[in-house]
């Protein structure tokens, strides 16, 4: 009897603690930390101003500060492609290493700006960590494989991440993204037609907001391509499936009660509605006249991703395809079409590509790659090259 009572008290305590945790999620500051995890840097004992710690060559990476219009300072890395570095190694070695005051004075910047054939990847990383965390440095190397003498990469830490100032929010991260795009096109002088947007996890929502925002301005801007790895449809649908570190399903008990979950979702401030953004962007492009309003969208996901299930990519792809067709298409109908047209790669997964009136929509589902490791895989290198038009 005493054992039963003790067990009952223990369960009641656990339920009470979980209820307190759920109630804390309605507090904006706590909610933000769960969504962005920006204080989990994962590079506590490493100096981001010394990129050689991640295997880069001396001055292959230039750390610099990018100011935003609303007064924040974003920490950034500019990575030279290895082929270009090899041609200018002697000059690059003469420059002092570390964080620079004015990136425009560095040789790496001039090599980007002054070469009319240079290409640029703007890189938006996922939640938690810094631009030096986990699989991000290896994935930067994957960016330039398709053209090792031409493809530069610039990555930023969003506001509130790493050494960047401020606090994250949906509008704030969009401002960070537009600031980086503005720097690329105005300071570096790279036209949007030579820029590919690459993003992973949380970064995919930021990237979609960016391309949608740039396309809806009075003078629309369209990039060469958009590559999204392990995206999610929106935060509300993610709450039911998201696992911290791929293992802890924080809202799984609540997800068993749809009405309770729907009520909790009303408290979400950062909604990141990627499904509606990709649909609006594709539909806008399809409705516009002229050749500039084009798109090249690649969605890549691994089946063994336990952090964000690959079903999110399935839904995003459907929203994009649905928007590309005048009469639309049902989800089940598209799945049936994909089953007939997709290219099966066995243990390498499968790919479906649809060429529309205004662009290309591509979905690649890998059997392996988990949530982060996939960023360094050849599938990413080929996607970047394809988005630049380097591959058929």
Automatic annotation (TrEMBL):
Alphabetical keyword list: Membrane, Transmembrane, Transmembrane helix
Listed InterPro entries: AB_hydrolase_fold, Hydrolase_4
Transmembrane segments: 7-27
Keyword Transmembrane: yes
Domain Serine aminopeptidase S33 residues, every copy: 151-247
Stated name of the protein: Uu.00g060190.m01.CDS01
């Amino acid at each position: 009897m005493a054992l039963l009572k003790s067990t009952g008290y223990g369960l009641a305590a656990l339920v009470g603690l979980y209820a307190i945790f759920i109630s804390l999620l309605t507090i904006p500051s706590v909610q933000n930390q769960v969504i962005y995890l920006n204080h989990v840097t994962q590079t506590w004992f490493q100096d981001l101003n010394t990129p050689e710690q991640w295997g880069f060559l001396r001055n292959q990476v230039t750390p610099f500060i990018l100011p935003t219009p609303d007064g924040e300072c974003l920490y950034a890395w500019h990575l030279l492609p290895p082929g270009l570095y090899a041609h200018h190694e002697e000059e690059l070695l003469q420059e002092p290493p570390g964080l620079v005051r004015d990136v425009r004075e560095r040789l790496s910047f001039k090599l980007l700006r002054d070469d009319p054939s240079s290409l640029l990847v703007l890189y938006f990383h996922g939640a938690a960590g810094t631009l030096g965390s986990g699989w991000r440095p290896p994935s930067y190397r994957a960016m330039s494989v398709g053209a090792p003498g031409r493809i530069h990469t610039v990555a930023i830490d969003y506001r509130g991440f790493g050494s960047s100032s401020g606090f994250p929010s949906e509008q704030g991260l969009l401002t960070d993204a537009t600031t980086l795009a503005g720097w690329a096109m105005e300071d570096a002088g790279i036209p949007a037609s030579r820029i590919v947007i690459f993003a992973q996890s949380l970064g995919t929502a930021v990237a979609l907001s960016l391309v949608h925002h740039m396309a809806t301005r009075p003078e629309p801007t369209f990039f060469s391509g958009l590559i999204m790895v392990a995206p999610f449809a929106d935060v509300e649908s993610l709450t039911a499936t998201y696992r911290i570190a791929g293992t802890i399903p924080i809202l799984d008990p609540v997800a068993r009660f749809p009405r309770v979950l729907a009520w909790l979702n009303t408290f979400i401030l950062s909604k990141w509605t990627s499904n509606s953004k990709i649909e609006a962007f594709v539909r806008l492009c399809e409705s516009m006249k002229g050749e500039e309003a084009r798109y090249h969208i690649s969605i890549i996901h691994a089946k063994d991703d336990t952090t964000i299930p690959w079903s999110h990519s399935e839904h995003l792809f459907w929203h994009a395809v649905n928007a590309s067709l005048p009469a639309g298409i049902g989800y089940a109908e598209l799945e049936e079409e994909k089953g007939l047209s997709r290219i099966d790669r066995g243990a390498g997964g499968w790919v479906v590509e649809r060429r529309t009136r205004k662009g290309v929509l591509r979905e690649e589902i890998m059997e392996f790659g988990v949530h982060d490791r996939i960023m360094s895989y050849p599938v990413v290198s080929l996607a970047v090259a394809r988005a630049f038009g380097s591959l058929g």
